[in-house]
Every structure is written in structure tokens, then in C-alpha cells.
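Throughout this chapter, every protein is written as a compact record of paired, labelled lines. The reader may check this reading against the record printed directly beneath this paragraph:
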Amino acid sequence: MVAGVSSSGVYGVPLLRPSQQARDRSPDGQKDIGQNTAGLSGTLTDDQQRQVQELKRIDASVRQHEAAHQAAGGPHAGGASFTFTRGPDGKNYATAGEVQVDAGAESDPEATVRKMDTVKAAALAPSDPSAQDLRVAQQADATKMQAQQELRRKGSGPGSRSGGSSGGQDGAEGGATPSDTAAPALAARGAAAYASAYGIGPRTGTAGIMV
């Protein structure tokens, strides 16, 4: 199973559903939207210059966001793909992005626990995780909890040591808590956003990662 972790569209650009993105992107994973050609034949107006500066800021933020996913996801993270908006200066700027992360369970439950720690760390690596990022983190917690339950049934492995520290949320079950083993790899604000979204109290010992 592959899940997408992404930065949401900004600057008034709607973020397409994954199925739409897959259809509309070019083979290199890039999609050019918006054909604002004002100012191409002459000097940009003050408003257009402000638009360009904002697009540059957004482009840098989106690329940093996706780079954080890739760095934390390691071998489970794929390449980044971007949606572009053409600015008044005729240049394309990234205004949304996505990194595909392998979030499928392994055949060995211990390997699944380790993998889900990495998947969750990848989802929460940016300081400003999107709603999709939070859903992937929640999904990783649920998959990890299932693997821990399997280990507890066997009476051995990290599941018995971890107990219920990572109570994933699926169906009628309660909110998930950030994994203790993944915590050092999570960006502080990313983990805080996850905690806030799922009604978890603040935790200590969470360190930021290099972005």
C-alpha cells in the first residue's frame, strides 16, 4: 500500500485529489496550472512583482516540505512530484507537492513496527504537516498497533514492551498517540499538529529534524 504525503495548495490554487493528479501530471510528475502571462512583454507592475515574490516564497516552502518527507522516509519514500503555477514573470513555481510513501505492512510484525515508525516520522517530518500527512501518520499508528497486538499474542517482541503507547485510530477506537520510538525523528510542530488533530496531550522529548 502506498500513501501520499503532501503539501497543500496555496496562493489560491486548489489541491487536486490524488486520482486527478495522477491523470493530469506529465510523465516527470509535474503539472503546470495557471497561464498568467500578464507582464511578459514589459515591466511587471507592483502587484505582479508582489505576486512573484509570494510565489517564490511558496515554491521554497513546498520544496522544503517535500524534502523533509523524503529525508525522514528513507527507503520507504519515493520521489517528490509537484504542481506548478505560472507567475506573471512567465516562470513556473511549485505551489503543491506530494511524496509517495510505502505504508504497507510487512510479513514480519516486528519489521512492520519498525517500518511504521519510519512512515509516521516521514508524515510528520515537516513543521507544517498537511491534513493528508496527519492521516498517513494516523494510518501508520493503526498498522503498528495491529502488529504489536500480533506480537503480544506471540508473547515476545517490541509489541509487549511498547504496550499501548501507540493506540492507532480506526473505526470506533480512540485517538492515537505519537510513537515513543519515532519521537526523536519528528519535527516538533509536526508532532504537535498531530497531537492537536487527534486530541492528544502534549509530550516532551520531541526534537526537530534537519529540513
The first helix runs from residue 18 to 24.
